[in-house]
Write a structure and sequence with these properties.
The protein is of the alpha+beta class. The chain has six helices and four strands.
Length: 152
């Protein structure tokens, strides 16, 4: 990715949703600081992160981290870990993995299209030549050297 004038950081883009207070925001941002390297390729004004927790510190708590980046699909990661710190680390690591996957998914798709454009054209002459071979098996001697050259 090219350098961005105003790179996104967790400190700038993070919002705390349900289950968290603004006081929790600072320590969550510190835990998510390792995402800064991955987010740096995007503009800060086009990137948003929101973390929320349902049933905080209860047995069935669920932590959700949502990421919106302009021009891309929303990424949602969740964790059902009982320990809040472990759940936050889990959603952070999953978001990093999915951002990496999204980045690498784009590159092979472009390369594959370039590779596939040349292959169908190469297959057409062989099919045509095979058809002429079957038509000329009982034909003249001038076609015989041509058939040998094709199979050789």
């Amino acid at each position: 990715m090219s350098a961005v004038a105003n790179p996104a950081t967790v400190a700038e883009c993070l919002r705390v949703g349900a289950g968290f207070s603004q006081g929790d925001r600072n320590w969550i941002a510190e835990q998510f600081a390792t995402l800064d390297a991955r987010l740096a390729g995007f503009h800060a004004d086009a990137t948003e992160l929101e973390v929320s927790v349902k049933d905080r510190e209860a047995r069935g708590q669920k932590v959700t981290l949502e990421c919106w980046i302009a021009g891309r699909q929303k990424i949602v990661t969740t964790s059902a870990e009982e320990d809040l710190h472990a759940a936050l680390n889990d959603v952070r690591d999953d978001l990093r993995r999915r951002l990496n996957d999204a980045k690498t998914r784009q590159e092979p798709r472009n390369n594959k299209r370039l590779r596939d454009t040349g292959q169908p054209d190469a297959g057409l002459p062989e099919t045509e030549l095979d058809d002429t071979d079957t038509d000329t098996d009982s034909g003249s001697g001038s076609d015989a050297p041509r058939a040998d050259a094709e199979t050789a």
